[in-house]
Specification:
By secondary structure, the chain is an alpha/beta fold. It has helices spanning 17-29, 74-82, 105-121, 139-148, 167-176, 202-213, 236-250; strands at 2-11, 34-38, 41-43, 67-69, 86-91, 129-131, 151-153, 180-183, 186-189, 218-224, 229-230, 233-234, 255-257. The longest helix is centred in the middle third of the chain and has 17 residues, at 105-121.
Length: 264
């Protein structure tokens, strides 16, 4: 049996319910879980590492508060809690540029706790999985995440960021060419990049995913809900490619779509 985890990044207090519903109703109706990497208290001026305003803020509609906790959008919170197919994953705290890339351990612990508390205040279960903004963590942040979360989902692992005590396990992973590994109780997952991206021809997305899934026991597929809505308008071919994936995954007897919480 092969397993697939669908991870969608950047849900936040400014995310329109209609966008998530449009994208993921075909998954929810088929019983396929969708893991939403949710920003607990989004910075309303969040920037990319290149200094550009984050596109998930397109819908901020003149919001002037420096940060906005997820609980400040009761319609969104209610929608997510009513649809059990959505699994809430902690995505940083404010999603500032490379937010966990240079923090010392004490500061990382404080920010992780603040983010978790914001999710709890919205009525979500305590998250067991962490995703760093821009997939970047300092060595100290990685250690603190492993203490607090059962799963770390990131793009890749670099030796210069991996804690020194983890190096033997990291070396074994490299020798085995394994995308996933463990450190103590923590499950450490990498992903093959954003195959579900608007920067790929929509007609090639499913075939690329199918090829990647071959002979891989576990694959994390990463996407971003806001990419499907260019300047607020739906990108119909891209949305169709996502829905085609839902149809494919639901009809494969040897593929099971799971949440991060189902990992053993």
């Amino acid at each position: 049996m092969r397993h697939v985890i669908l991870r969608d990044d950047d849900t936040n207090a400014l995310t329109p319910v209609d966008c998530l519903e449009r994208l993921y109703r075909p998954f929810l109706n088929r019983g396929l879980p969708v893991n939403l990497a949710t920003i607990p208290e989004v910075a309303t001026d969040a920037r990319t590492p290149a200094g550009e305003i984050e596109e998930f803020l397109y819908w901020r509609n003149g919001e002037t508060a420096p940060t906005k906790p997820i609980a400040a959008n009761p319609r969104l919170v209610g929608y997510l809690r009513e649809n059990s197919g959505y699994q809430i994953v902690q995505h940083g705290c404010h999603h500032q540029p490379l937010e966990f890339d240079a923090l010392p351990r004490a500061a990382a612990a404080e920010r992780l706790e603040r983010g978790t508390e914001a999710l709890l205040q919205a009525g979500f279960p305590r998250p067991n999985t962490f995703v760093a903004p821009h997939d970047k963590l300092s060595r100290a942040s990685m250690m603190e995440v492993a203490e607090r979360f059962r799963v770390l989902s990131t793009g890749w692992f670099e030796l210069r960021r991996v804690p020194f005590s983890w190096w033997p396990g990291y070396a074994m992973r490299k020798l085995r060419r394994a995308p996933h590994w463990r450190r103590g109780r923590a499950i450490l997952l990498s992903h093959p990049g954003c195959i579900l991206s608007r920067h790929r021809p929509p007609q090639t997305i499913l075939s690329t995913i199918v090829e990647h899934l071959q002979n891989r026991p576990l694959t994390v597929l990463v996407t971003h809900w806001w990419e499907y809505f260019r300047d607020g308008r739906p990108d119909e071919p891209f949305i169709a490619a996502l829905h085609e994936l839902a149809g494919y995954l639901s009809t494969q007897p040897d593929i099971q779509v799971i949440s991060f919480g189902q990992l053993q």
